[in-house]
From TrEMBL:
Name the UniProt record assigns to this protein: Major facilitator superfamily domain-containing protein
Keywords: Membrane, Transmembrane, Transmembrane helix
Subcellular location: Membrane
Spans traversing the lipid bilayer: 16-36, 79-96, 108-130, 142-160, 172-193, 227-244, 264-282, 294-312, 332-355, 367-387, 393-416
Species this protein is from: Lophiotrema nucula
Example of a GO cellular component annotation carried by this entry: membrane
Top-level taxon: Eukaryota
Bilayer topology annotation: Multi-pass membrane protein
Keyword Membrane in annotation: yes
Pfam families: UNC-93
Length: 462
């Protein structure tokens, strides 16, 4: 068997260096965003304005998701990644000012900024990891969840004595904002596509750009497909749960316990996303078999987490505890929160992978990712609106239970009736061979995942 020729590369222009910069940027910005919100109420003492701000964040994401890919096609991934880092610090500063001084305007302004910038960051980082890299390096784990865990560790270390309810300390906000500020210089170090050197000798080529009208036609035709419509309940659920889970951590735990829970939540999530990715990549099984294994794993772990969650929520609604790690009853509540952290990435990894099995047409893949992100962001928006309306926790939990189990039969239909062992030549919108309608930054599938999962036949985790 012929071996691929290896070409020498300069380290600071290598695909590995580019992927590292993209991943570290994800660590410093969305990773720390996750750390702040994973503690509930953005680390503060009151969730009211934070829920409204997060509704704005994800609402802005939803509004921009279908159109960001086309813009990034025109400004290149490097500058899109730089733009993507700019909204996080104003948001974190707004959380701090709101908690300490009662100032609302900066938090709401920061929410809009992060909603706009996050769209650029996710499409750009996905394009870098998929479009720059050689085939054997695509689709590996990013550092976003690790960044959230690091943020949780920082929060825990700076609030280790806070065995009561309240907000995190001022140094916590300052330390996390400093980490967020590092995102822009890391992004600015990224080589441009023309300067990237690949070990296989192939250049990174930008695809020919289509008109907005043609790209809109791709999106319109895609949304007519029954399989796409059938997966929308799962995509809607796929980010709705964030608001309730973060609220649960805020409502029933002390400051230091919230920081510990958040750290473990993202650590186990990193492991479970990698695990699901490896299962969906296990090519000794047919793709149909992998789809069914993934479906039953999601059904078991996510279903069990919400059944247990409903039981625990009913109990906590009656007793309204404030749990510290030295308290009786802490173990069950913490286990539930960590179980959510483990099972949530099962859903997000599987839903992107499953969507990717429906087409191998490169003109459609980036739009499919954008649609998934759009529907998921709508779910997050509605979830935070529910939290901002002070809906009782019992009912907020019930909504999540209903959303998940309603999505199960529709997802099962796609898994058992629509997934085939090969999608070569399949097109959701009838665009085989239409190179003029390419929507990808590179001649490879692009992604737009807030959840940091790469769509496509492979189930790897970005």
């Amino acid at each position: 068997m012929a071996t691929e020729e290896h070409h020498p590369v300069t380290w600071f222009r290598s695909t590995l260096w580019a992927a590292l910069l993209g991943s570290v940027t994800a660590l410093t910005c969305p990773g720390i965003f996750g750390a702040l919100n994973g503690m509930g109420a953005g680390g503060g003492a009151s969730p009211d304005i934070t829920n409204a701000a997060n509704a704005i964040v994800f609402g802005t994401l939803a509004a921009r998701s279908p159109f960001t890919e086309s813009l990034i096609n025109r400004i290149t991934p490097k500058w899109a990644l730089c733009i993507g880092t700019l909204g996080y610090v104003p948001y974190a500063a707004g959380l701090y000012c709101n908690d300490r001084f009662g100032t609302n305007w900066l938090l709401l302004f920061g929410a809009v900024c992060i909603g706009v910038s996050a769209c650029f960051l996710w499409v750009a980082s996905g394009a870098i990891l998929l479009g720059y890299s050689e085939e054997h390096r695509k689709g590996r784990a990013s550092l976003q969840s690790l960044g959230a865990s690091i943020g949780g560790i920082v929060s825990l270390a700076l609030n280790i004595e806070k065995s009561w309810r309240g907000s995190v300390s001022t140094p916590t906000y300052i330390a996390l904002m400093i980490i967020m500020c590092l995102g822009f210089p890391f992004a600015a170090l990224l080589p441009t596509a023309k300067r990237i050197q690949r070990t296989d000798g192939r250049p990174v080529q930008l695809a020919q750009q289509a008109s907005f009208l043609k790209e809109f036609r791709v999106l319109k035709n895609m949304l007519k497909r029954p399989a796409i419509l059938a997966l929308m309940p799962l995509w809607l659920y796929g980010q709705w749960f964030l608001s309730y889970q973060w609220q649960f951590n805020f409502a029933y735990f002390t400051v230091r316990a919230r920081a510990l829970n958040s750290t473990l939540f993202y650590l186990v999530g990193l492991f479970s996303a990698l695990l699901m990715g490896q299962i969906l990549d296990f090519e000794r099984f047919s793709r149909r078999m992998r789809a069914r294994i993934g479906f039953f794993l999601v059904l078991f772990f996510v279903g069990a987490s919400w059944i247990l969650g409903q039981v625990v929520q009913v109990h906590h609604s009656k007793t309204t505890p404030t749990l510290d790690w030295s308290s009786d009853g802490f173990g069950l509540g913490a286990f539930l929160f960590i179980l959510w952290g483990f099972s949530d990435p099962f859903v997000t990894t599987f839903m992107f992978w499953l969507g990717g099995t429906l087409t191998r047409n490169l003109n459609e893949t980036s739009f499919l990712a954008a649609v998934i992100n759009f529907v998921g962001s709508l779910g997050s928006t509605f979830g935070f609106v529910v939290s901002a309306m002070d809906v009782e926790y019992d009912w907020a939990c019930v909504i999540n239970v209903i959303l998940f189990f309603v999505s199960v039969p529709f997802t099962a239909w796609v898994v058992f009736a629509k997934v085939t062992d090969s999608s070569h030549g399949k097109s959701l919108a009838g665009l085989e061979g239409d190179k003029s309608s390419s929507a990808s930054v590179f001649e490879t599938p692009a992604v737009l995942p807030v959840v940091s999962i790469v769509p496509g036949e492979k189930g790897n985790v970005k």
